[in-house]
């Protein structure tokens, strides 16, 4: 798989960036448009490169301060017909499906971790659906709540923040989870409390819900399933397989557990509420722990270039030091 880098760079930096791109293994095509960038003023450089080599090149561009002085845009063409591209992919180490562009992962999870109105709306709707499925003993409604729930975004962002030591990302994701789940449970509890005098469900609804017993019975498999789901979810984000991510949503009971806590508290089933809260905690910890493990594994095998330890060179000469001169 090829990716395209669009680089806006100052004119005095363009030669160093161009040589850095040309020297990178896996580069198929490079185009240099002098004076094409108006804001910021400078040159435009486009690069077609194998995905396996993109992370190393981006790391070197960070050393050259391209993101600070200009910009880096990354896109993935749907189809590239080029013998040079085929040769570049063959020369690049590793496989494109296993390659990770860390800036892309951080940016994607960062967007998903924000406490927004849409995130709260989805979480409130999902928790309400879960509560309806619980009191009506409807597995279909509970599965629907799992699909609608947006909680994996902040959980993935929390894992990325822990691995990358990005404290702002950790705070943002913790805020989204810490505000979202309690708010969703409070609103769901209020709706359940109002539904009782309206006769929408009986007071013994939880006694008859055999299909939802798994929600408030945490056990060893609860943590195992959460860990497997967290690993699969992070792998799906890295490999851009959205269908696998939907399967992750269906496999874990974070939102149903939150809905069960709210309903059980309203009905005075405190033991079941405690069990469901434990289920929720186990799922959250399991998902984040497994996602962290996946990211650490990919960092270990991905031959990631650390900008603080490695400088881009061409022919044994440091481009950074040459520009400084």
From TrEMBL:
Keywords: Membrane, Transmembrane, Transmembrane helix
The keyword Magnesium is assigned to this record: no
Membrane-crossing segments per the record: 117-135, 141-163, 175-201, 221-238, 245-268, 280-301
Keyword Membrane part of the UniProt annotation: yes
Source organism, top-level taxon: Bacteria
Pfam families with a match to the protein in the record: DUF389
Protein name: DUF389 domain-containing protein
Source organism per UniProt: Paenarthrobacter nitroguajacolicus (Arthrobacter nitroguajacolicus)
């Amino acid at each position: 798989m090829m990716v395209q880098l669009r680089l806006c760079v100052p004119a005095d930096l363009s030669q160093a960036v161009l040589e850095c791109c040309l020297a990178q293994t896996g580069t198929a095509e490079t185009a240099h448009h002098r004076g094409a960038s108006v804001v910021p003023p400078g040159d435009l450089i486009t690069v077609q490169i194998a995905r396996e080599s993109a992370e190393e090149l981006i790391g070197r561009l960070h050393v050259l301060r391209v993101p600070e002085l200009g910009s880096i845009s990354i896109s993935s063409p749907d189809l590239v017909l080029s013998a040079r591209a085929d040769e570049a992919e063959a020369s690049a180490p590793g496989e494109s499906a296993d390659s990770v562009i860390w800036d892309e992962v951080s940016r994607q999870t960062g967007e998903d971790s924000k406490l927004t109105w849409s995130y709260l709306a989805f979480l409130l709707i999902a928790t309400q659906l879960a509560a309806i499925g619980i009191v009506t003993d409807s597995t279909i409604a509970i599965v629907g709540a799992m699909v609608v729930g947006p909680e994996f975004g902040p959980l993935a962002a929390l894992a990325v923040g822990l691995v990358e030591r990005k404290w702002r990302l950790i705070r943002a994701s913790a805020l989204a989870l810490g505000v979202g789940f309690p708010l969703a449970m409070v609103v769901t509890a209020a709706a359940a409390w109002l539904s009782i005098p309206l006769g929408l469900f009986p007071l013994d609804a939880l006694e008859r819900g055999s299909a939802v017993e798994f929600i408030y019975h945490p056990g060893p498999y609860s943590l195992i399933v959460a860990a497997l789901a967290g690993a699969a979810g992070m792998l799906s984000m890295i490999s851009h397989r959205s269908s696998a991510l939907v399967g992750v949503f269906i496999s874990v009971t974070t939102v149903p557990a939150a809905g069960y806590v709210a309903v059980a508290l309203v009905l005075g089933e405190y033991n079941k509420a405690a069990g469901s809260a434990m289920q929720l905690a186990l799922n959250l910890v399991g998902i984040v722990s497994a996602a962290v493990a996946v990211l650490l594994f990919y960092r270990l095998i991905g031959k990631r270039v650390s900008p603080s330890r490695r400088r881009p060179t061409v022919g044994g000469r440091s481009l950074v030091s040459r520009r400084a001169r």
